[in-house]
Specification:
Length: 564
């Protein structure tokens, strides 16, 4: 090397990863690890509690791992694809058998992907790393309803948010003309869109909204190879749905509408209460397990305001693009955010269009849920239909963040007299914005703390269920009859060493999602009965036991009835 001349590294002029990360980046990484760690701890505690629906997905994964069956739909219905089963099947094969942990490891991985992509999307849209930290912190928290959506492998919910955010990130890159692997990105967007069409249509508002951005900005490119590749990838990913519908002559949309309550009746008062009051607060993680206290419902009136602010802010930015610096970053991003925006190379108009798309998708999601009868009939449980709203969080909170951080920038351009006149208004606006952000984080943190408190009871209940499985095996019981919420969970936990057929509380045949189990139990010589202690089914079976027809074996929380 010549004296006085420094050799330039290959990546000269490009900031090193450590330098790029900065304080906000390091804090974001810690928060991200905390969010994953919290859910990993919940997984170790068997929390949230499992159920027979999740066990049904686990049984599908077990059948796939054994090569016995390759289901297209969730057993017992003609909608909701079995992607989670196909993801868990390799885990079961490597582990040598099924388990609740093995079933949920893929959903935990999907959550980690969602968190990473949400951070990336926030930087793409705003260029503000501190705002990215706020978004990741909120998504790292997890109320009872949130962690159920993210960890329970019950079909659709864990993968929808990850796919929805990925679609938005790809839309930003493609619409802004980001170079490199463009055809691969077009194919990835199409594949994810087709995959979600098969898995669960609840994410379709985000598919349509981000797709509209691509058409608006890149319609010429879509007319060529990019459009053909996108379409082919979408058809390939949706092939299970398309082939099954063609071969069986069935329309999966009919089944989806039936599941949403289209065939039931609920008054508009109940729908509006569930869809606009309870639903958003529960579905976005601001409520205690199974209920919403009155003070936790403050998010319900705040959400329409945030939607309106987000839409107006994005529309104004879209219609009146601000000057950009030489790197392509919006000058209004501020010093803290300009570096991130420059890295992403996102134009202000594309970022505004995607933010507007996320807001409109959220409006469509809330609207579709509110008009469904599920919002009126089962608002607490069906609030899971609003899980996709988390995808829109960066677009909803960005206007509030900018006011809290910088106040109303228009004042800086006004006359001195106007500044004095508006000083109080600016102070009030900033105070309200700060209070709103603090209340959002605080309410979500309280709901997370309440959810974590349920872990010991859930773990104890899972231990009692494990004792039930062990007792049945010690008694040599191979076939049983039980209620719906007992059957498939018992069959999965025993790896099909105990096979169960469903009965209702009057001992009549119930809904068996996998009919082969009923056939096997009906052919058995003397199936046993299983019921949770204190349940209506246990009361009916107790009468038979007192009449001398059954022998009773009791364990903590469960009653086993053996035929004489």
């Amino acid at each position: 090397m010549t004296a006085g001349v420094r050799e330039q590294p290959r990546d000269a002029g490009r900031p090193r990863p450590v330098a790029r990360l900065g304080p906000a980046g390091w804090l974001t990484a810690l928060v991200l690890l905390a969010g994953v760690g919290y859910r990993l701890w919940l997984l170790a505690q068997a929390t949230p509690p499992t159920n027979s629906d999740e066990a049904t997905m686990g049984l599908a994964a077990l059948h796939i791992a054994r090569g016995e069956d390759f289901p297209v739909w969730f057993y017992g219905q003609q909608y909701m694809g079995t992607l989670e089963a196909y993801l868990a099947a390799p885990v079961f094969a490597l582990a040598g058998g099924p388990s609740l942990v093995g079933l949920r490891l893929p959903t935990l991985a999907l959550y980690a992907v969602f968190l990473l992509l949400a951070w990336r999307l926030t930087l793409r849209l705003t260029g503000d790393r501190w705002f990215g930290l706020l978004v990741v912190a909120l998504l790292a928290l997890g109320s009872d309803r949130i962690v159920k959506n993210q960890l329970i492998a019950g079909g659709g919910y864990p993968e929808m948010n990850a796919a929805g955010v990925a679609l938005a990130v790809l839309a930003v890159d493609l619409a802004s003309g980001r170079p490199g692997r463009r055809l691969a990105r077009w194919a990835a967007w199409g594949f994810l869109a087709g995959l979600m069409l098969w898995v669960d249509p609840l994410v379709l508002p985000y598919v349509v909204a981000t797709g509209a951005v691509l058409v608006g900005f890149r319609w010429r490119e879509l007319r060529g190879a990019a459009g053909a590749l996108l379409g082919a990838a979408a058809v390939l990913a949706a092939a299970p749905l398309l082939l099954h519908s063609l071969l069986n002559g069935r329309n999966p949309l009919h089944a989806v509408l039936a599941a949403s309550g289209a065939n039931a009746t609920a008054g508009w008062a109940e729908r509006l209460h569930g869809g606009l009051l309870l639903g958003p607060s529960l579905g976005m993680g601001f409520c205690d397990p199974g209920r919403c206290a009155t003070w936790q419902l403050w998010w319900a009136p705040a959400l329409p305001l945030l939607l309106a602010l987000g839409a107006v802010s994005a529309w104004r930015a879209l219609r009146s693009p601000a000057p950009a610096n030489s790197a392509g970053a919006p000058e209004s991003a501020g010093a803290a955010g300009s570096a991130g925006a420059a890295e992403s190379g996102v134009s202000l108009r594309v970022a505004a269009a995607v933010r507007l798309a996320l807001v409109l998708a959220a409006v469509a999601t809330v609207g579709a849920y509110t008009v469904s009868s599920s919002a009126g009939l089962t608002p607490v449980e069906s609030s899971r239909y609003l899980s996709c709203l988390l995808i829109s969080l960066p677009a909803l909170l960005w206007p509030v963040w900018t006011v809290a951080r910088d106040g109303l920038r228009q004042v800086a351009d006004g006359r001195r007299g106007v500044r004095a006149t508006l000083a109080r208004s600016v102070a009030v606006a900033r105070s309200v914005a700060v209070v709103l952000l603090v209340a959002t984080v605080g309410t979500a943190a309280h709901a997370t703390w309440r959810a974590a408190q349920t872990a010991p009871a859930t773990r104890a209940a899972e231990a009692r269920h494990a004792e039930l499985v062990g007792t049945l095996r010690q008694l040599g019981v191979r076939h049983v009859r039980a209620g719906y919420w007992t059957c498939n969970r018992l069959t999965f936990a025993s790896a099909e060493r105990v096979v169960c057929a469903v009965v209702d509380d009057d001992l009549r045949p119930g809904f068996d999602r996998y009919p082969a189990y009923r056939r096997e139990v009906d052919e058995a010589a003397a199936p046993a009965w299983v019921a949770p202690a204190g349940s209506p089914l246990a009361d009916v079976l107790d009468e038979r036991q007192r009449a001398g027809n059954l022998d009773l074996v009791t364990i903590d929380g469960w009653r086993i009835y053996l035929p004489r």
